[in-house]
Amino acid sequence: MGTGLLRAAMTSRPGSRRFVLLANATALAWAAGSLEAPAHRHPARRASPVDLRTAAEAVAAGTATFAVVYTAARVSRRIPILAAAATRAARHSVEGSGAVVATTIVNGVAEELYFRDALFRAVQDRHAVATTSASYVLVTAATGNLALTLASAAVGPVLGWQRRRADTVIAPVIAHLTWSALSLWLIPPLFADEPIVISDGVR
Q1: Which of 11, 53, 170, 172 could bond to 162 as cystine, CB 3.0-4.6 Å?
Q2: Does residue 203 lie in a domain region?
């Protein structure tokens, strides 16, 4: 359900009421899915508490991930297919900015509750990082946006590594929100002058 809602949201007109409603519905689907996952009925060992060092490492990881994505975004402006995809994604970050910030926070937390908490603990083996990262990429690929899919491939392993290293979902939540905040702030200006390609009803 979350995958379908995510695709519907990202193919909606940027800043529209439909986009906001579908984005929030996507977050609700991930959060509900995390509660229904087997890991919650058979929990793993208690997660470690988050101390200042863990939080700082998560912020650093999120910032480093953003640096990679930002560099890739600059390069993508020279590749038409990537520039078009990144421009469509950036429009969602610019139009209706207040609602976008709120939905970004809500979705960031909900995604981590599902992918890096419930799914991560359901896998419970040495391949948990790879499995959750692959799932994250496949779900993002359903949006049909190549730029977002490539970004998820860079972000997913970092968030999974944070989850394994800290033994708590709070670490990837912090990292996710850090890279999302920086992305909302600094990536859209890169594509402000790019032409908007009409696709799936989005200008």
Answers
A1: 172
A2: no
